[in-house]
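Field guide to reading this record: the first block holds the primary sequence, the second block holds the structure written as discrete tokens, and the final block holds curator observations. Each block starts with its own label. This record concerns Septum formation initiator, catalogued under organism Bifidobacterium oedipodis.

BLOCK 1 — SEQUENCE
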Amino acid sequence: MSKQSRKSKSGKTRTKRNNSAGPIAFFVSLFIVALGTIQLVSTFHTYALNLAELNGLKREEASLIAKKQDLENDIKRWDDKAYVTAQARERLGFVFPGEQAVRVLHPEAVTGDETDSKQSDDSDDSDHKVLPWYSELSYALQQADEPKDEKDDQSTQTSQSDQSDTKTNQQSDQTDTGEATQQ
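BLOCK 2 — STRUCTURE
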């Protein structure tokens, strides 16, 4: 066999092998590229998460530093005798010897501002002893178990009819004077 015949035989076999190895090499290289892309995306995702966490921690650190500064300023204020005196007067109601303490029970009488009726109702309730919730519940259950007297029923019905009469009178007065509002 001559060299040329060997080359032709080996050349044919090489071309066949290259043709059959081409799709396999393409899919292997495609798999490697896909794997690299997935790894790269995963790395960038982890980087973005860590960067967001770092920024959050920096914001938290800045707020804690500001809070610390405010607390240190509060501590420094207590070194001032005038501040301590003002706080003792305001919070504890202290007075200097020879001064007379005056406490205003109804500040709206002094300032002229009217407060909500809700606050005045609260002041009326403050005269009564407040019971714990379980005592209130027990009291309510005992009251529910007791039979009502006929007198109580009649007085309740009378007061309810009086209230409805009052409401209708007020409504008619409002319509007469034009104070009624549309709802």
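BLOCK 3 — OBSERVATIONS
The two ends are 114 Å apart (CA to CA).
Helices lie at 3-77, 81-92, 107-111, 117-125, 133-145, 150-177.
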